[in-house]
């Protein structure tokens, strides 16, 4: 029996969706591997490690690598809860439909408002950072105009691939996956095995980053090394209605994203540390962008150029995956009538079977933000992206908290991916505790003495939350929506009563 035939045992995809109150709008052309590739390229260990390597080492020294293990473990708990939720609710849009069906439409609106802005800002930031790699690859001058032009190019190319349909999205995501694995695992292993200039004991040496204070404070300050890296697995669920047998495959893809992404990041981070010719200078902060020098000394000019090709592919795939996730969230919002212009934004192209108008929005706003950054300078990029990660963590924890609330009320997840009664409680509580801990670390003000720089994370997050609350209570965007909400227990009972459900007698 083929994989697809055996995968269809149990409730069929269309029938499962019908129980949830929806009809199929997409083509289910995304396989498990394409779904995993989408999440992995969104998580993008190459992008994350490159962006944070210098900051992590100058703040916490080589032991900051252990944050990859700590955060990876915590986010795996979150991914397990997401797996249970998407297994019962394999609906496009991810965070929004999950929070709506677990709690209610106002709760879902706020969680999604924060999440969509975090996603849109992240799209902009990744395209901006990727323009630097593209510029280096083509030897373009480093000017504001060139950066803007290359950023726009990355955004439009990613939009073009997304616009072409789900199959193209899956193909490019798989290419990005291959590029990522070469760039992080391949290069990382090469550096660890053939270019090692440090002893492995260096990972237990703070190398003086603590100064006269406690190393614990320095280590906690380096938490960003992991916190900025381990999200993206939720994108696997954003395209749930485009995946065959999503109730089983998406939880698997989420877990694979965390595990493979974590191992890749460890090899990459560790390889750069071990191959650094002057590690103390990086730790001291005297080398602002150390990875190009490490690659140049280890791979030579040609090897470093090839790595730039891999890096550009990784950044493009990351932008592509982010746009896909944002557009499906917007589509899901629009389909339920939760935003102005909902009929337009929820339109799905009959020819391409993608939410084209939602994609236009997911590309247009980052284009506008790129122009603002061009006018305001790179400091504006730092300011508008500072709240993105805490916004994503807040949205994640909105799902985790809502799942725990339903569990206390008697919910037993009815999807094929199930942690069981005791396991579900243990993992759910662990995920919530981890998430609160992570948000506290992200929200702690800096100590530079410059008010805006020290408090920008909380200021940005506060602006988004307050504006969302004002619009929610004044504009009442949820008032016209009539789709189900807070029905986790009832839907679980319906699914279990279905004649094709595994638990049905």
From TrEMBL:
Looking at the keywords, is S-adenosyl-L-methionine present?
A: no
Q: Domain of life of the organism in this record? A: Bacteria
Task: State the annotated membrane topology for this chain.
Answer: Multi-pass membrane protein
Q: Which GO terms describe its molecular function?
A: transmembrane transporter activity
Q: InterPro entries, per this entry? A: AA/rel_permease1
Location in or out of the cell:
Membrane
GO CC terms for this protein? Answer: membrane
Task: Note the Pfam families from the entry.
Answer: AA_permease_2
Instruction: Kindly provide the name given to this protein in its UniProt entry.
Output: Amino acid permease
Q: Which UniProt keyword terms apply here?
A: Membrane, Transmembrane, Transmembrane helix, Transport
């Amino acid at each position: 029996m083929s994989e697809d035939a055996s995968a269809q045992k149990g409730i069929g995809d269309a029938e499962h969706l019908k129980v949830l109150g929806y009809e199929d709008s997409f083509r289910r052309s995304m396989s498990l591997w394409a779904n995993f590739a989408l999440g992995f390229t969104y998580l993008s260990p190459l992008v994350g490690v490159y962006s944070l390597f210098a900051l992590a080492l100058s703040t916490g020294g080589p032991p900051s690598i252990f944050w990859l293990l700590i955060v990876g473990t915590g986010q795996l708990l979150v991914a397990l809860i997401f797996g249970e939720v998407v297994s019962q609710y394999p609906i496009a849009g991810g965070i929004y439909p999950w929070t709506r069906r677990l709690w209610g439409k106002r709760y879902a609106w706020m969680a999604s408002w924060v999440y969509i802005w975090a996603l849109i800002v992240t799209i902009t930031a990744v395209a901006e950072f990727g323009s630097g790699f593209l510029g280096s690859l083509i030897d373009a001058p480093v000017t504001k105009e060139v950066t803007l032009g290359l950023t726009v190019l990355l955004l439009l190319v990613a939009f073009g691939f997304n616009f072409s349909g789900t199959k193209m999205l899956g193909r490019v995501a798989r290419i990005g996956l291959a590029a990522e694995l070469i760039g992080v695992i391949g290069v990382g292993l090469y550096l660890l095995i053939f270019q090692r200039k440090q002893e492995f004991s260096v990972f237990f040496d703070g190398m003086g980053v603590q100064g006269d204070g406690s190393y614990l404070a320095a280590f906690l300050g380096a938490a960003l090394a992991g916190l900025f890296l381990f999200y993206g697995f939720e994108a696997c669920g954003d395209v749930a209605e485009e995946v065959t047998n999503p109730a089983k495959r998406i939880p698997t893809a989420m877990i694979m994203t965390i595990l493979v992404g974590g191992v890749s990041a460890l090899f990459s981070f560790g390889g750069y540390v071990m191959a650094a010719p002057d590690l103390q200078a990086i730790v001291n902060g005297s080398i602002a962008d150390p990875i190009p020098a490490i690659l140049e000394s280890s791979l030579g000019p040609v090897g470093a150029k090839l790595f730039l090709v891999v890096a550009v592919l990784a950044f493009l795939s990351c932008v592509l995956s982010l746009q896909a996730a944002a557009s499906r969230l917007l589509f899901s919002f629009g389909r339920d009538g939760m935003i102005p212009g909902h009929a337009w934004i929820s339109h799905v192209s009959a020819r391409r079977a993608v939410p084209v108008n939602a994609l236009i929005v997911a590309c247009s706003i980052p284009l506008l933000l790129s122009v603002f950054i061009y006018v305001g300078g790179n400091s504006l990029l730092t300011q508008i992206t500072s709240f993105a990660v805490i916004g994503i963590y807040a949205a994640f924890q909105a799902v985790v908290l809502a799942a725990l609330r339903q569990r206390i009320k008697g919910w037993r997840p009815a999807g094929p991916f199930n942690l069981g009664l005791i396991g579900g409680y243990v993992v759910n509580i662990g995920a919530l505790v981890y998430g609160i801990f992570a948000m506290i670390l992200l929200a702690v003000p800096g100590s530079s003495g410059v008010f805006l720089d020290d408090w920008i994370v909380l200021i940005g997050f506060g602006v988004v939350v307050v504006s969302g609350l004002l619009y929610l209570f004044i504009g009442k965007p949820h008032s016209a929506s009539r789709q189900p909400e807070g029905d986790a227990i009832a839907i679980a009972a319906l699914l279990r009563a279905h004649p094709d459900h595994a638990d049905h007698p």
